Amino acid sequence: MKNLNICIIGGGNLGRAIAEGFLKAGLPAGKLVITRRRPHLLEDLTKKGVRVESDNAAAVIGADLVILAVKPYQAEGVLQGIRSSLIPGQMLASLMTGVSLESLKSWLPETVIPFRVMPNTAIALQESMTCISAPDCNDEQKEVIQELFETLGKVIYINEELMAAATVLGACGIAFALRFIRAATQGGIEIGFGAEVAQEIVAQTVKGATELILQTGHHPEREIDKVTTPKGITISGLNAMEHQGFSSALIQGLLVSYNKINNG
Ligand SMILES: NC(=O)C1=CN([C@@H]2O[C@H](COP(=O)(O)OP(=O)(O)OC[C@H]3O[C@@H](n4cnc5c(N)ncnc54)[C@H](O)[C@@H]3O)[C@@H](O)[C@H]2O)C=CC1
Ligand SMILES: O=C(O)[C@@H]1CCC=N1
User: Fold this and answer.
1) Is the pTM of this model over 0.90?
2) Ligand 2 binding pocket mutation candidate from 167, 258, 263 (most atoms within 8 A of CB)
């Protein structure tokens, strides 16, 4: 991965997070170019040795992999701007929500094969859940892509039909999980802790719960059963949450996000 030259187009929330993740993973700063219309906003990356550009067409020259991280409605215009600078053999990863491979192909030269990548902002800390759909890549290209994104967290390959679902569960999921952390922290303050301590307790507890599932593969309810003492306080709290629609609210939210991708 240290040999790949990578160009990120669109240094916003996600583009910047990916650049930070690559640097943490040991990619030499000189192998990375990132673009933004107002490059001075990425001054911190410039200081780390990353080339920051406002000219997309110049930035893609020499890149083995171009990562497109602009807003979905900007996709076509940005690709038209770099189209004539792309050369056969370059790979193009699109992070854009709801932009199909079919659309990408119609905006790209035939010799450039696009694939879709759906990471989340934890990619900055190499803790992303990254779902990839690359039906037009060969096995060797898939291996290179997998190896690259595995330096930034977990990777799974999925069919493109599942990309919208992956976006909601994995990418939006960061915000959903953080809202749980915020709410639990607010509850913790009401029952006696200062905000900072409450947040630390909640965040470490969520991390522990996550590890119980990731390391054992157990169903969450199996681990919940170990916490819910009969006639105890946990089951009373859980049931009160469910009476208020806890699980239902979460599932409804996922569906609203999902339907918005499909219906615009
Ligand atoms: N933020 C997230 O957690 C996730 C975002 N995505 C997708 O990633 C894409 C980017 O999302 P965000 O980073 O949140 O948006 P953002 O608005 O923070 O970043 C987009 C960046 O592109 C820059 N930009 C716009 N036009 C440009 C151009 N012509 N040349 C160079 N740069 C240009 C903007 O200045 C901005 O900094 C979207 O398509 C989104 O659907 C996917 C997964 C997660
Ligand atoms: O909210 C959004 O549209 C983007 C896509 C997934 C995360 N953020």
Assistant:
1) yes
2) 167
